Every structure is written in C-alpha cells, then in structure tokens.
UniProtKB/TrEMBL annotation, chains A, B:
Protein name (record): RNA methyltransferase
Gene Ontology cellular-component annotations: cytoplasm
CDD domains in UniProt: SpoU-like_rRNA-MTase
Alphabetized GO MF terms: RNA binding; RNA methyltransferase activity
Residue span, RNA 2-O ribose methyltransferase substrate binding domain: 32-107
Alphabetical list of Gene3D superfamilies matching this protein: 3.30.1330.30, 3.40.1280.10
Origin: domain of life: Bacteria
Biological process terms in GO annotation: methylation; RNA processing
Amino acid sequence: MPRDITSFSNATVKRVRSLAQKKHRILEGLFMAEGLRICAEALEAGHVPRILVSRIGDTHELTLRLEREVEAAGGEALRVPGDILEKITGKANPQAVVGVFGFLETGLARLDRSASGIWIVCQSLKDPGNLGTILRTADAVGGGGVILLDQSCDPFSVEAVRASMGAIFTVPLAQADGQDFFTWLRSGPGMLVGASLNTDRDYQGVSYAPPTFVFMGNEQRGLPPDYEAACDELVKIPMRGKADSLNVAVSCAVMVYEVLNQQRRR
Amino acid sequence: MPRDITSFSNATVKRVRSLAQKKHRILEGLFMAEGLRICAEALEAGHVPRILVSRIGDTHELTLRLEREVEAAGGEALRVPGDILEKITGKANPQAVVGVFGFLETGLARLDRSASGIWIVCQSLKDPGNLGTILRTADAVGGGGVILLDQSCDPFSVEAVRASMGAIFTVPLAQADGQDFFTWLRSGPGMLVGASLNTDRDYQGVSYAPPTFVFMGNEQRGLPPDYEAACDELVKIPMRGKADSLNVAVSCAVMVYEVLNQQRRR
C-alpha cells in the first residue's frame, strides 16, 4: 500500500525533488518523468518506476496499477498533497503523478544496427527540448536509436523527458565521443549522412540505403569540419527564405522522413 | 546619441521590462526581441525598433547602426549596464541588445495568396516555442504567411520571438477566428489540407496545388471535427513507433516540405 506523506522533509520527497538537478541525477542514476500518461507508457515499454509519487485521493485505474507494479518490484509508492507535488515538479499546476526511473542508456556496442534502416546521431546538442523532440521523432519513424556525441545536453533532464513524450522509454539511446562512434560505425554497414549548409547537394538527391545514420550538429555551429569530412554524404535541405536556417529538431525530422519515405518505397 | 541609464526606475527601462507580460504587450502594441542578430535582421526586413537597449561600452558596428536608425526614426536608444539588461530580459547572461518593435500582424484581407504556393494555418496552438519554430519553418520554405486561428498563444511573447529566430519579422502573420478564415479562404483559390490522425490517407499520396494551406491543430487535441470536415483533404504522416505522435512543429515541417518538394518538381 502506498504511504501518505504530508511532510516536505520526508527523505524520499527530498530525494525526488533533488532529481531536478543534473548532479543529483548523475549521482543517483535516476531521473523523473512527470504525468500519468508517460509513466503508463514507460510501464508498457517494460520500465517500472523505482519511486512513484501520486496525489492523495487519486483513484485513476492506471495510477493504482502503477503503484502495484512499483511495490511488486520492490520500489516505493507515495501519496502526497498537491503542494508537495508542486514542490517536486516546480510547477503551479503539476501533473498528478511523478515517476522516478533508472537511466536508460545503452552502450554503442549493444546497438543492433540491423534493427532499423534509420538512426539519428546528434553532436553537441544544447537544448533539451530539441533533444526530447528528436527522440519523439525517432520513435515516430521507427528509428533504431539516437546516439549523442560529445558534450550534449542531458537526455534525462525534466525538459528533455517531457518533450520526448515517452520516447525516452522506447528509443534506444547511447552516448559516446566522436572517435569511438566513428570506430563503431565503420565496424559494420551504415551510411553516415550529415545535414549541412556547406554543400549544394539536395537532401532528396541521395539514395538512403539502410541503415542510414542521419547526423545533426549543434544548434549554433552545425557539425565540426572533421566530422563533416567523415560523412559518406553531406546534404542540404532547400531553403527559400530570408534566413538560411531551420530548428535542428525540424531539420532532423525533414531528413529522417525523407529516409523513411525512400525506404518505404523500396 | 544614446543616453546612458543606470537606474532601474527609469521610465523606459520599466516600460521595456513590462513587455515580458502579455497584458502590457497588448496595451502598448509592442514586443521585445532579444539579441543583436535578430534586431539586425528586423532592420534588414524594414522594421526599425521603437526602442533599443544596449550595453554600455558596446562598440559593435551593427549596434551603432541600429542606434542611428532608431534615433533617425524618432525612437529611443538607451545604454545600460549589464544588471539592467539582466532585469529586462530576466536572464543571467542576457543578450547585449534588446529591441522593442510594434506588433506586426496583418489582416486576412491583406494577405496575397498568389505570393506563395505554401501557407500555414494553426488552430489553438498553445506552446509559443512551437509557434516560433513554425514561423521559422514558414520562412525556410518561402511560405506566404502563418495564420493563427482561435485562441492561440501569443506570437509576440519572448519565447515565440526567440524560437522564430527572426522569422517573426519576415513572415506575414494574421490572426482570425475559424469562420472568418473559412470565408476568406473560400473567396479565392486554395487547397486546405489538414494534418490528422483520423484518416489513412498518406500525406505523400496527395497532389498539393499552389496555393496549399497546411492546417495544423492544437498540440493535445488536433483539429476540431468541424474544422476537419471543412478541409479539402485530410492526410496523415506515417508513423512506425510505439506512440502515434509527433511534435506539432515537426509535423508541420514534414508537411510543408512535402508541399515544397512537390511544387519544386513541377
């Protein structure tokens, strides 16, 4: 049975709250996901929360099921009043349920490149909202996974998890430095396609054989020159506007949908 | 010559600060754009700031040029220390320049539908980051404009302006209610294409004649049923993942790039 907790100084409440900060997430290897829907999707994908915090009086069937699963797995289920949920989430109108999960990363070596024709690789991505949106897109195209290179933002931040809309639980995620990635990539089949402004090659003028790795650079700087040089193809999305720029999550989606569209026509 | 202001209680400083709030933006018909690059792009597009706030000691050529243009147009150019810029922008590391501009909306009747083959219509969009990103995409595809229907978020909020990366100044923007929009739309040529989950029609299976109006619904609910019924076509972007969902700015980009790709092949 979940325990009712009404004190802000409860150790578990304080621990969950601390996960809003990256240093505590890294220390504990845990992160927060807000909302009943996302926690239920996590469960669906086989990820049982270690801790579940829900609102006192919540009688939603999914909340009760989550609580049972958490406790059956040896985790902790708490019931708290609205003001504690506000404190935990830092929001005025918090979601009714917060789940705490273990980090979901996998190593490069454990990615199965035959599992999908579409992969996404991001270098030094800075905005967690962009990263979450890219994870969501990766799920939508049935992508094999997202690989983060170098110093990218934290995929387990509240903002990234929220923008992923559950994809953090369904899309394999690996982090690596550039050299390790290139070594791994060239140890098997795979076409590395960089999205770039430094080319006139139209993104629709290239044939994307599976597995295609779509390679996106940092929001401000794009891909570093030596990373562009390591690509099998550099391609550009046509732009007709005043500014020669697209949001990185948008460019990524336009790229991977072209790959999906080509591959589904085969 | 710009005046040096070092007091937080200066009337113009307080007025600029107040524009972080929607009610003050609406009262004054003014909004803030942060950053030298975006202010310079605004100028390029013919929009001179009414007020320009820059950092004391800033010698950037573009800042000086902006100041000259603002004063020549009868506006006000201030120089302030870093702490006042922090206060104005609410950020710890503020941009060196903040411009204040008049609202840029136009009426439906003033949109020229022959100006472009691609238009974007959004209904009750809630997230200003999504709206800004959609404006940026509209610029990139050379779209004719973005039309906001019903209760959408504020395109002149700091977050929307920032995400637009200058497109707020280059992309025509109109707001209307649904009925007025449908009346205007049907008064001339135009194909209205709704992105929807309530159809099996593939988005690549439709021929998009110019001008095509891509119609996106609210983040949670999509388009209302009667709005879907008013569309010439409802189409679906294929999804292969666990969740049947994409970020709305991402779906919009995938849609408008399909329209652009078809129209540039003609």
